[in-house]
Design a protein that fits this description.
Blueprint (H helix, E strand, L loop, with lengths): L2 H29 L4 H15 L3 H14 L4 H13 L10 H9 L1
Helix pairs in contact: 1-2, 3-4
Length: 104
Amino acid sequence: MTHQSADSHSASVSKGAQEEMGELVEYLARSSRLSPQEAARLVNEVLAFMSEAPEEFVRRRHLALQAQGLSNRAIYLQISEELAGRRFRAPEYSERQIRRIIYG
């Protein structure tokens, strides 16, 4: 695939995704009490949430669980369990790998 055809392919995929999101926004506005602007914001927020990378999720959850007063050992176990149920395909991280994501 040439650079130009790859760009046009990306553009058509993006255009198709935008059309689908537009249809979803219209559906939400029609079927709920949301305005079109509120529905668009909701769709964007859900997409942002669902596109979170595993490493970002680990860091965010660590801070949240730490704020609840959990020990790091309990946090690592809970994060490991939560990763298994997330939409993204995350590898099974060991406690050590989770610790390295958090602290570097």
